[in-house]
Amino acid sequence: SVKQVGGASHAFYTPALAVDQREQAELLQALRHAVQRGELQLVYQPKVDARNLQITAAEALLRWQHPQRGTISPVVFIPLAERHGLINGIGRWVIEEACRQAAQWRQQGMRMRVAVNLSGHQLRQDDLVPHIQACLKRHKIPAERLTVEITESVAMDDTAHTRAAFERLRKAGLHVSIDDFGTGHSSLATLRRLPAAELKIDRAFITDLGHSERARSIVQAVVQMARTLELRVVAEGVETTAQRDVLVGLGCNELQGYLFAKPMSATALALWADTDEPPADGEAGPGFRAS
Ligand code: C2E
Ligand code: MG
Ligand code: MG
Ligand code: MG
């Protein structure tokens, strides 16, 4: 971080900043090899049906196990990967790995959807859809069982390119979700044209639900609009029973958040999904669903 050193006017060129830049460069260098070195990992967070709290999907979220620094958040390294042309390679690995995991879960009798997050850069790759289709085929996953989450700001980029990419995803039969909905500036016109199946309301609106009438009205409006457009609505970042109750009352279809489960390993998720009733003594076991 930039520190003011002795009131010097050249404070922007402090050693602290130089170190940050060197660290960035080192991180980038390490990231170039992270896929081949097997340092990337997917954790999974369930989405649940708002009516019965049964699992509907598992969203894959990337983690980087850096040999020296430990776990690094995607918020740190995805933007770095996007800036330096590494996101496509990483994104291809994510799709392959998520399909492989989906196949393993199916063998264990779990048929929930698996969701992957796509970067805008990936949408611009001509081989994105062929790669997804090859992975689905290799692992025998029906296309509609794979959700691709695309951030609203990327989805609303109303260029011919983005629209064509969406059209190809839809033609391939994938389940398209507009992530972080409410943070971009969707026009109803664009939204209507997009062949999406799901709107995922951004956590910022969910956070305020318990105490803000305004947040409630916004979520209500989104749910109504989604109904008109025949889209499913998912709420992300649900942390409290108060938020859950409002969302259920408003007719939100699916819920996701720490109240139900944090992102976890594939093995832990299989155990979690398997235990669909809280233990009789009411204690919070691994599969306990807050009620
Ligand atoms: P996202 O797709 O909107 O994912 C939701 C983020 O919120 C995740 O953070 C998740 O761990 C966190 N979260 C879930 N429930 C709660 C909750 O109840 N409370 C709070 N405070 N947070 C919650 P994470 O895993 O750090 O991922 C951050 C972002 O990084 C994701 O946002 C997504 O945009 C991006 N990302 C993650 N994995 C990938 C990937 O494989 N590819 C791409 N392109 N982006 C990814
Ligand atoms: Mg997402
Ligand atoms: Mg999101
Ligand atoms: Mg988000």
Largest sheet: 8 strands, mixed, barrel
Order of helices and strands: HEEEHHEHHEHHEHEHHEHEH
Using the alpha-carbon principal axes, give the shape: globular
In the sheet with the most strands, the strands line up as: 1-2-4-5-6-7-8-9
What is the helix tally? 12
Bound molecules: ligand C2E, magnesium ion
Alpha-carbon distance between the termini? 43 Å
Segments where pLDDT lies below 50 for 5+ residues?
1-10, 277-291
**Average predicted local confidence, pLDDT:** 88
How much is the radius of gyration in Å? 21 Å
Taken as a percent bin, the fraction of beta residues is: 15-25%
Category from helices, strands and their pairing: alpha/beta
How many beta-strand runs? Answer: 9
Helix content: 40-55%
Notes on the protein architecture:
This protein has 291 residues and is of the alpha/beta class. The chain has helices spanning 15-34, 74-83, 87-107, 120-123, 128-139, 152-155, 160-171, 188-193, 203-207, 213-228, 241-250, 266-274; strands spanning 40-49, 55-66, 70-72, 113-118, 146-151, 175-181, 198-201, 232-235, 254-255. The chain has an 8-stranded mixed barrel, surrounded by 4 helices. It is globular. The chain starts with 14 loop residues before the first helix and ends in a 17-residue tail after the last helix. The model is unreliable at 1-10 and 277-291 (pLDDT under 50). The structure holds ligand C2E and magnesium ion (3 copies). Ligand C2E binds next to strand 2, helix 2, helix 3, strand 4 and strand 6. Residues 179-180, 200, 236 line the site of one magnesium ion (MG).
